[in-house]
Design a protein that fits this description.
The protein is α/β, with parallel strands linked by helices and 425 residues long. Helices cover 37% and strands 14% of the residues. The structure holds ligand PL4.
Length: 425
Amino acid sequence: KRFSRSSPLLVASTPTASKQMTRVPRNPNLAKLEAGYLFPEIARRRNAYLEKHPTANIISLGIGDTTQPIPAHVAQKMAERALALATPEGYSGYGPDLGDPELRKKISERLYGGKVDIDEVFVSDGAKCDIGRLQMMFGPGVDIAVQDPSYPVYVDSAVIVGQTGTKNGSLYENIRYMTCLPENNFFPQLDKVPRADIIFFCSPNNPTGAAATREQLEKLVQYAKNNGSIIVYDAAYAPFIRDENIPQSIFEIEGANEVALECNSFSKYAGFTGVRLGWVVCPKSLQFADGSFVHKDFRRIFTTCFNGASSLAQAGGLAVLDDKGMQEVRRLTDYYLENAHILSSAMRDLGLKVFGGENSPYVWVQFPGRSSWDIFEELLERAQIVTVPGSGFGSGGESFLRLSAFASREQCLEAKSRLEKMFGK
Ligand SMILES: Cc1ncc(COP(=O)(O)O)c(CN[C@@H](CCC[C@H](N)C(=O)O)C(=O)O)c1O
């Protein structure tokens, strides 16, 4: 594949010191970031293994990157939009600041049942990018709470914008880590979490696969209200929810529009990880302590630091949200959920403690007393399977391994038999 992850070009080379030293001071926050960002490290280790064993048939259950083709009619719509750009009547340049109004309307109607206003929907180039922009808006003067373990961008972006102190051991000063373990059913004991201004909450959760129930989310919203906090609710895996009692959005909870905003993504809806399309719902009623409106500030950041999602990607998003597209989303996510079931039952049959994999494409496997990176290396060396070490998501992930269910069905079945051989079934 043209952009196969294994091509050496894509593995960042380390810069060499130049003779001419500049006098520009480095951002001191970047110096606080210890290791590199987690996912390029996974790719680096995978490529290093391939260099040593060029004929290895590696199966990737690591980076949560979709593998199934985009639905044909969605690709067709993007192609038509691209061809239209080559015509005088079809050409268009910069789009509307907050996204194609028709797409914003469809997101509101199809995904929120009209519960959110169209002008509360900000169409973007993806949820990860929105997290960065939200952090720019919040600035260095706030403190955050994160589920531990969780998607590394919440903590790393907090360090970069100056919301934290230095790292002591595996924890950054000034971050409230809300431990999520089997013991508390992967939902934090909120009454034991010190107040934080911003609460990053991802459900269905990456990496544990835990999906918060309505009752749990009502507690979370009440906790934020009691503490005057703002929830940044990351619902990137909502399309995997099958359990009726699991809300698809924080805005299904009464009063959430006074304490929460939501980021989401087309990445896992329809394989848009490379197309790049996401959105934020920022309620107009959300206010900062001084009474100013979050919506106003986010709009300022959005329009100042971002020039809008690609018109091609937005054309694709419109097709994803039509009736045919929503059926395709269901088919694709069912496919990945079946993969998750194959992987979770395989690991369970081997006597391992397994979590997640339902309402989520992530399977969370516990190896008590073992280092996550050692298990990662062992699976790579002995079974040529790439996973993600749980400790990469925080100290709460130590001794866990994350398996993603985005590989092909054949690869998941092959991984199952390799794991059975490896663990001696
Ligand atoms: C909870 C959550 N929120 C947002 C995202 C990214 O959404 P986006 O694609 O930007 O709309 C993700 C994607 N995470 C995956 C891909 C990681 C590797 C990608 N390079 C990245 O850094 O996001 C993973 O954990 O394997 C996520 O889990």
